[in-house]
Amino acid sequence: MPVQTVDTFSALISCFGSDLAHLLEETTPRNPSPTDFIYLVERTRDILASSSLGNLNDAGEDLDAAISYLTDALESDPADKRVLLARARTHLRDAIETAS
Hints:
Blueprint: H1 5-23, H2 34-49, H3 54-75, H4 78-99
């Protein structure tokens, strides 16, 4: 069964979009595209990585890894997308737990 990237990205956006927006003290984006979601993750990473607190820096590193996997998933063949997005999900979850 082929993996549909948009649906898989939608699941990630649904799970993590509001948490990331909360960390930025922003409202949750409405109907973001996969690229919009990656920009949200990048902005969150930039804010957390600039902090002097160790746990926020660690969260920023997890978000940096998630960005790499998300970007690669946009550009990869369907067989690799599921694995890349699963790895991104792990880093997103870890970053949010660490930053909270």
